[in-house]
Amino acid sequence: MLADRTMPTSDAHVNHHRPDCTDWIRSSNNVTQQFLSFGGMPDVVSLAGGLPAPELYPLQAVRDATLRALDRHGAAALEYGPVEGLFALRQLIASRVSATTGGTFSADHVLLTTGAMQGLDLIGKVLIDSGERVIVQAPTYLGALDAWRPRRPAYERLRWDATPAELRGAKFVYTVPNYSNPTGALVPQAQRVALLEQVLQAQTWLVEDDPYQALQLDGPAGPSILAHAAARQAGAYSGPVIYLGTVSKSLVPGLRVGWVVAEAGLIQTLALAKQSADLSSSMLTQAITFELLDSQFDHAHAQTLVDAYRPRRDALCREAALHLSDWFEWEVPVGGMFVWMRAKDRAIDTNALYRLAIEEKVAFVPSSVFDFSGDDRFAMRLNFTRAAPAVLAEGVQRLARAVQRYLKTQPAPR
């Protein structure tokens, strides 16, 4: 449910003589479940989930990489593996990070995870105790809020001009600087450097979540915050930035391979938490991922994605200018997967609009789920990567009909 942010329950499955579920699960939502379910509803145009285009999945490349992985590793690819992950892939990621940042990283700085989402979950487990402060870029990635919900943090909104005193005492600062989810914003380099400086002075952690880095539609994103941190020191990396990466957006999500890059001591602690979560992530998919990255296939495939996604972004924004601009405003994103539309009239409630949109067979994500307080109800996130331009145009037209229906239900202005 969206309005009360709680998960629906069925009385048929509730035994009132047994203990209740935990408080945190009752305060959660089933938003992500809903959005993933739209893929099985062909009559619904989904502008909701942050999903890649399935017709662009590199089936042949994955098939070939699977055979190479089995030839290289044999039965070891089908075994339990080290908690930290496949050593060869950790080394390869460390080498790439060293090359792109100019820092010194080794396999000891890399933990492989079951998607970047597990990285977020592990960070919450090792750094957040109930009631502790966490400062987040706002609006905030829904998956991060879901991952940390059981930890019960005290959230605060990130101000990019925050002073060290304002950050001091927080367990970490969380940001998605490259084509942020949900806003699609690219954080300027000056703001990245300034935030890093404040974090260093405040002596806290900075979590840099970077799943969209490869989707550079209009030019390079520039150095990561991790790169700025690595440039400030000599020798093995020991800075405050905890960096999250994944192949879910740049290759295929089904591999479920992500990684955390951080100073070696924190990686050891995260691995300790991971062993109680899943023992080890899939060695097979890690071995396949190694083959795809070692051959540089992911770099070539990123260009294929960019060439496909750019006209989809343009189609969505062009159609929105024709049908939604009376009520919403937005910036055309220079990368990533999302357009963030803000209501010109803050009286428009996108939670209520969402229900009418579903009746019109179109889905989007209301802004309330990206707000840890749930109070932001006047914006919406639209995804442009999942559908062809003609389908995006139809989705926007359906959404415009939902807006018109919504406005008819509102009191006339006095």
What does this structure look like?
With 414 residues, the protein is of the alpha/beta class. The protein folds into two domains: 11-58 and 300-408, Aspartate Aminotransferase, domain 1 (Alpha-Beta Complex), CATH 3.90.1150.10; 79-296, 3-Layer(aba) Sandwich (Aspartate Aminotransferase, domain 2), CATH 3.40.640. 41% of the residues lie in helices and 12% in strands. The protein has 14 helices and 13 strands. The strands form three sheets. Strands 2-8-7-6-5-3-4 form a seven-stranded mixed β-sheet, with helices on both faces. A four-stranded antiparallel β-sheet has the order 9-10-13-12, with helices on one face. Helix 5 packs across helix 10, helix 12 runs parallel beside helix 14 and helix 13 crosses helix 14 (389-408). The two termini are 32 Å apart.
According to CATH, the homologous superfamily of the largest domain is Type I PLP-dependent aspartate aminotransferase-like (Major domain)
Number of helices: 14
If strands are numbered along the chain, what order do they take across the biggest sheet?
A: 2-8-7-6-5-3-4
Might you state the CATH topology name of the largest domain? Aspartate Aminotransferase, domain 2
Q: Rg from C-alpha positions?
A: 22 Å
Would you tell me the structural class of the helices and strands? alpha/beta
Strand content: 5-15%
Helix content: 40-55%
The CATH architecture of the largest domain is 3-Layer(aba) Sandwich
Q: What does the largest sheet look like?
A: 7 strands, mixed
Task: Please state the oligomeric state of the protein chains shown.
Answer: single chain
Low-confidence spans: 3-12
